[in-house]
Hints:
Elements: H1 6-27, H2 34-53, H3 60-76, H4 89-108, H5 111-135, H6 142-157, H7 164-186
Amino acid sequence: MISENFIWVALLINLFGTAIYLLDTLKGKVKPNKVTWILWTINPLIAFAAEIHQQVGIQSLLTFLIGFGPLLIFLASFVNKNAYWKITKADVVCGLFSLIGLSLWYLTRVGNLAIVFSIIADAFAALPTLYKAYHHPKTENSFAYLTASVSGAITLFTITFWNFQTYAFPAYIFLINFLIVIAIRFQFNKNKSLT
């Protein structure tokens, strides 16, 4: 394991990637799905609240940042004429999982339930972007997802006491962002424009 102080490096890396994506959003270079990005705000913030309740410690800062960055991108997407707002069945399911997670945490005060449902809901929210990254890789910026994945990995390496509440969300962040990076960078599907 590495020193907990490396969490600050992870946060800076993530902030840098978020800033690049935010600028690309404002310039119209990327086409964020507003539904995905608002759900990527809500779910990590639910997990962050649960981690605070579970006394996770400094590693919870990554979870907070993973929610705060998408909030900025969601707000910036209103400036980007190419961003789109399309509510799908997956978005509705994701929203329901978010509400269930928040409700179960509130009713039971079991933070791990909120973390589980936040991860499930976040994964559902990621599906439209993963699909878009696969089918229309030029509408995304892999750098932002790479920095999020690296931040998740660094956070995992700072954990000294491994339990669900400390590793679950960083491990998920590492994995989902890595999958999106692969979809964008390897351009399995050669469609270049979003229709």
